[in-house]
Design a protein that fits this description.
The complex is a heterodimer. Chain A is an alpha/beta fold. Chain A has 10 helices and 6 strands; from the N terminus they run βαβαβαβαβαβααααα. Chain A starts with a strand and ends in a 5-residue tail after the last helix. The radius of gyration of chain B is 36 Å and the shape is elongated. Classes of the chains: A alpha/beta, B alpha+beta. Chains A and B meet through helix 6 of A and strand 1 and strand 2 of B.
Chain lengths: 212, 414
């Protein structure tokens, strides 16, 4: 299995070193960054494959890191890692381009696994993020013409299972489909989340100044 | 000026709650400890001396800021103010016409300008009344007033514009009154010289007193925002002291890691609820808050993390409360028999339909082989759901743990 090179971005030094010591057994850590500027510089210098990104940081937070790095044509995979419960923060960083979101109380092995999955091109949904997504896509789509603005019944079913605490493998088993199919559905939901024009999402994005 | 000539003395404030008009007399009486009636009498006597009393009173109303309690009397704004202006003007007109009919006093040259002045004056004074109460409110240290204060800057621009135009109309009316009077008495040319002198005096006074007035306004604003800030700080400090510091103290005295973890989790929940402005756990009237509270309780009792995800929300009726109670029982079971694995709770409320899933990764059990004395599952979960028109389903296997599914349809048929 590939061992992706990881950069840890968080403004709390104690948390950074904690995550580092937990992940070092499983993954290669290229460095740590405590501010938005440091993060962008470290992405440019160390060229990590996966960036563990704190949502809340002074100076714009994770969203700003993604934006500034993209301005310099740097596009590593981002996994948002936060204590934040606020749906708009999480959705904003996902819409900016993060490939997944996990809460900070995740177990070390699960975190390492999530990093690997993001690196492999999969989307990583924690139950909480699944809840946010279901909330954001609740109700009929404002414009039925755009297929992007609604989840298919299957996608909905899978996201519901994630919210209920099931792993991809367990979902595949229950729905009698292959784990790869589950991943494809989840990636499709992530893409809809990033591209959808649903007004809730647009409003969230507008609040955070992301609708450029 | 009063503040300068009496340093340290109690400031002179109007007292609109006790006053007849603007509370000028009441305020003066309060400040100097004289009987209110005496002050009023003095003003009336002064009025007979060529209307001096009225002028003084009007000046007092404008210059003396309103005292505490001014907010209690609502000042009419918007259309109400225009009606007040019209009414005042018409009332005065009728009084003057009555005098005229009785043959006492006054030529037309005075009547019409007076009517105009009264209307315009009413517009201006009413309009400028509301901002004048702001500094007074800042002195009352209650939270309710504080809230009102912080909301003040958010006044809609439309209302501000209305106030400005109102003041503009008022000024125009008063100026027109002045011109009409001068025209009628033929003193317009003489007035020009007087006007020049007045302008000179105003400029001189302005230059002398402008810095002082500016400083006063600025210090008042600074003082106000400082007070708001310190009150907010005190409130945050009080909350953190009661919650976070208390928990930290408990953590330091405990050597049971499970208890420490439970304490931390509970504190985290509480702090999150506080930060997001949700009502505290005790008084949950909404489904999401009630489920969170139940989860926190189970977590605390059994030391197993319970993760709650809620999609949608609804008010708690009897049926929803039954679902919450059944969920609590399911969470308790999962915590007790789940082998210490984290418990995932997912609730979805959509169009009145309610779905709850409670899941653990424990060893699992056979729901059909439950001993008859295990009333928890049979009564508290399955039976309760059935009684409220819903249903409960339990799926369990050693490989994947146990999941309890609770369903409450939109219209329970009994």
């Amino acid at each position: 299995m590939s061992s992706p090179r990881v950069l840890i971005v968080d403004d709390h030094q104690l948390f950074r070193s904690g995550v580092r010591s937990e992940l070092e057994r499983h993954l290669e850590i290229t460095g740590e960054a405590g501010t938005v500027e440091q993060a962008v510089a470290a992405i440019a210098e160390d060229n990590p494959e996966v960036v563990l990104l704190d949502v809340h940081m002074p100076g714009g937070g994770g969203v700003e890191v993604i934006r500034l790095a993209a301005e310099r044509e740097l596009r590593p995979c981002y996994l948002a890692l936060s204590v934040s419960d606020a749906a708009e923060d999480v959705i904003a960083v996902i819409r900016a381009g993060a490939r997944g979101y996990v809460t900070k109380n995740i177990a070390p092995e699960e975190l390492a696994d999530a990093v690997r999955r993001v690196h492999d091109g999969d989307a990583v949904f924690s139950p909480r993020l699944a809840g946010f997504v279901l909330d954001a896509f609740a109700g009929p789509a404002p414009d039925p013409e755009t297929e992007l603005d609604a989840l298919t019944p299957r996608e909905r079913e899978i996201i519901q299972h994630i919210a209920r605490g099931y792993m991809y493998k367990e979902i595949a088993l229950r729905l009698e489909i292959s784990p790869k199919t589950v991943e494809a559905h989840v990636s499709s939901v992530l893409r809809k989340l990033q591209l959808s024009s649903r007004h809730e999402l647009t409003r969230w994005a507008a609040d955070r100044g992301l609708d450029r | 000026m009063t503040a300068d000539s009496h340093p340290g003395a109690q400031a002179l404030r109007r007292d609109p709650t006790d006053g007849w008009l603007g509370g000028v007399c009441a305020g003066i009486a309060l400040r100097y400890g004289v009987d209110r009636a005496l002050v009023r009498l003095a003003f009336v006597v002064a009025t007979t001396a060529g209307g001096l009393g009225v002028a003084l009173y009007a000046l007092g109303w404008l210059v003396i800021p309103a005292g505490p309690g001014a907010g209690r009397r609502r000042l009419p704004t918007g259309r109400g103010a225009v009606e007040v202006a019209l009414g005042t003007g018409l009332l005065l007109l009728s009084v003057l016409l009555t005098f005229r009919a009785l043959g006492i006093w006054f030529s037309d040259a005075i009547v019409w300008p007076l009517v105009l002045i009264a209307s315009g004056g009413a517009l201006i004074w009413r309009g400028s009344g509301s901002p004048a109460t702001a500094p007074a409110q800042a002195e009352a240290p209650t939270a309710a007033l504080l809230k009102k204060e912080t909301e003040q800057p958010r006044r809609e621009p439309g209302r501000t514009a209305a106030a400005i135009s109102r003041t503009g109309i008022g000024i125009a009316l008063v100026v027109a009154a002045g011109f009409a009077f001068l025209q009628a008495t033929g003193a317009l040319s003489a007035a020009r010289d007087v006007l020049l002198a007045v302008i000179a005096v105003v400029v001189v006074l302005g230059v002398i007193f402008a810095p002082w007035v500016l400083r006063l306004v600025r210090s008042l604003t600074a003082e106000r925002s400082e007070r708001i800030r310190s009150q907010e700080r005190a409130e945050v400090a009080a909350h953190l002291h009661d919650s976070v510091l208390q928990t930290l103290a408990l953590v330091q005295r405990s050597d049971d890691p499970q208890e420490v973890a439970a304490l931390a989790r509970r504190q985290e929940r509480e702090l999150r609820a506080w930060l997001s402005g949700r009502p505290p756990a005790g008084q949950a009237a909404r489904l999401a808050a009630a489920l969170e509270a139940a989860a926190a309780d189970v977590e605390e009792r059994h030391g197993v993390p319970v993760e709650v995800v809620v999609v949608g929300d609804r008010n708690l009726d009897a049926n929803a409360e039954a679902v919450v109670a059944a969920t609590r029982e399911a969470m308790t079971n999962a915590a007790k028999f789940g082998g210490g694995s984290p418990v995932d709770v997912y609730a979805e409320s959509d169009d009145g339909q309610l779905h709850v899933f409670v899941r653990d990764r424990g060893p699992g059990f056979d729901p059909d082989a439950l001993p008859a004395d295990r009333r928890g599952v049979r009564e508290s979960i399955v039976g309760r759901m059935r009684r409220h028109g819903g249903r409960a389903q339990i799926t369990s296997s050693p490989a994947s743990g146990t999941e309890v599914e609770l369903e409450l349809p939109a219209r329970p048929d009994r």
